[in-house]
Amino acid sequence: MDKVLVIIPAYNETKSIGGVVRDIRVSLPGADVLVVNDGSTDDTSGEARQSGAMVLDLPCNMGLGVAVQSGLIFAQDRGYRFVVRMDGDGQHRPTELRALLAPLEKGEADMVIGSRFLKAVSTSGLNEYKPNMARRIGIGLFSGLLSILLGTRVTDPNSGLHAMNHKSISFFAKEYPPDYPEVEIRVMAHKAGLVVREIPSTMLHRTGGVSSITSLNSVYIVLEMLTSTIVGMFRRVER
Amino acid sequence: MTRIQILAILASLLLMFLTVELIRRKYLEEKYALVWLLTCIFFLLCSINLEILSFLARLTGILVPANFLFLLAFFFLVVICLSLTVVVSRESQRQRRLTQEVSMLKFNLEEIKKRVGLGGKGGQKGSS
Fold it and tell me: Which of B102, B121, B126 is opposite residue A59, by nearest beta carbon?
């Protein structure tokens, strides 16, 4: 298999990070795992090292996008061919990574995104993630908006499960939105002419840690994402 | 010269002194200081010659000169705030870049340390 790097941005994920790393090393034995510790106050870094991951320690908490971008710069520096970005809280399933990489290996896409709302496989018996009402409205809003703006069907605008080939890596290593990047990168990828494909994926309930989005700041976040999406459509993107 | 005029002149001079002192102690960079110095000079001129303000107020059709001053001050503060957020955004972009660079350097250092047998925290895969 070609050189693959799995990037896991992590902030205070001591409980889950070790298990996630070990699962990836079982499911994808040829891949390297890089945990980007985003200034955690707990022992996320030590836990990740112990389970056999490489660890980038950011000196302070810089936000999800900055952590992911650090991983992308790392991948670019060290010549990884493909990159997978997944969560460290156990919500994404390492067994799905192969399917995520397949379209890249066949050269059918530059970026593959695991969508929770495309259904192809039976998910019975799994502790599947069900977003609450407020989230469903938010997700619906953005998938509608993106589908119109990008002229292609977007089912899961907030997915944090991505795979990228070299073209996407070098594009996003240069510029990546620092906060709540998921929606904005869809716009950026579109403007950069990257071929993006969604494939079905299952997301589980988190095994540890807390969501970065609380009800208090969610309205502001939605407005922020809305602004960045619409402004993003008018921005010039260097290809 | 009226009492309020003397007060205004003194206040302008005080502000100017403060600005110069801040520049002298390097608390304020020259490129940001210039706009404050110009403001001080404008205040000073306005307090020495009251006609300036009345003239400007007549020019813009504002009845009371004081209102013109308030309007001007308000616009000025909005512009200053906007430029400050621009500066802050730029600084945080640089900070992000530096943070990433630091983490990368730390990683490489650990790796090299381990390779030459100085021991490290065990950052590399398969080291355990």
Answer: B102
Cα–Cα distance list, A26 to A13, A29, A94, A208 (Å): 20, 5, 9, 21
Contact between residue B123 and residue A54 where contact means Cβ atoms under 8 Å apart: yes
DSSP A55: E
| Distance in angstroms (rounded) separating the CA atoms of residues B60 and B68 | 8
The residue to which tokens 């070990």 are assigned? A22
Amino acid identity at A33:
V
Query: Could you tell me the pLDDT band of residue A126, with boundaries at 50, 70 and 90?
Result: low
Question: Cα–Cα distance between A134 and A87 in angstroms, integer?
Answer: 22
Rounded to whole angstroms, what are the CA distances from A49 to B96, B101, B124? Answer: 24, 20, 8
Whether the Cβ atoms of residue B66 and residue B35 lie closer than 8 Å to each other: no
Return d(Cα B101, Cα A54) in angstroms, integer: 16
| CA–CA dist A203, A126 (Å, integer) | 9
Residues 9-38 of A with CB under 8 A from B: 32-33, 36
Residue among A62, A72, A176 with most chain B CBs within 10 A, to mutate: A62
pLDDT at A125 over 80: no
pTM above 0.95, yes or no: no
- The domains of chain B are located at 1-48, 66-115
Within A19-176, strands assigned E span 32-38, 54-58, 82-85, 111-115, 162-164
